[in-house]
Specification:
This protein is of the alpha+beta class and 147 residues long. The protein has a domain of 93 residues: Nucleoside Triphosphate Pyrophosphohydrolase (Alpha-Beta Complex). The chain is 20% helix and 41% strand. The protein has three helices and seven strands; from the N terminus they run E-E-E-E-H-E-E-E-H-H. Strands 1, 2, 3, 4, 5, 6 and 7 form a seven-stranded mixed β-sheet that branches. The longest helix is centred in the middle third of the chain and has 13 residues. Its cofactor is Mg(2+). It is an enzyme of class 3 (hydrolase). It comes from Leeia speluncae. Monomer.
């Protein structure tokens, strides 16, 4: 068997001390996550982050930097995820009338403290880790990507 990690992207978006998250239905119940999802065949990482943010929040995302690349092993599922986290901004308002992805309940803005109070509802610990890295000033230029 050939080991192959699953590549995902996530958008870390902060506005006035609050972070854009999504509330989504998962096999483990309702969870909170950054706008995030899988890289599609032939897609560039930046384009995937823009697409996933739009599909899950109806906001148009403009990536400005990366906060990091994260590895998340899930031994019970025999999976490993590689998460590319992008920092950026969104338009002031979401697109009106946009249909969110199936399973997405809503987009919401939460402070870091509110995220910490809801740790048991996070899709993974990487949600908080990405926020902490953003707040710590982790910034890497988009030019590091060669896709």
């Amino acid at each position: 068997m050939i080991w192959k990690p699953n590549v995902t992207v996530a958008a870390v978006i902060e506005r006035q001390g609050k972070f854009l998250l999504v509330e989504e239905e998962t096999a483990a119940g309702i969870r909170l996550n950054q706008p995030a999802g899988h890289l599609e065949d032939g897609e560039k990482l930046i384009d995937a982050a823009i697409r996933e943010t739009l599909e899950e929040t109806a906001y148009v995302f403009t990536p400005e930097a990366m906060s990091g690349i994260y590895r998340l092993p899930v031994p019970e599922k025999d999976l490993t995820y590689l998460r590319f986290a992008f920092i950026g901004t969104v338009e002031e308002q979401p697109l009106t009338g946009y249909q969110l992805d199936k399973g997405i309940i809503r987009a919401l803005w939460l402070t870091k403290e509110e995220v910490m109070l809801n740790q048991s509802k996070l899709r993974s610990h990487l949600v908080l880790t990405c926020i902490e890295d953003y707040l710590a000033g982790h910034r890497y230029p988009l030019s590091i990507l060669r896709d």
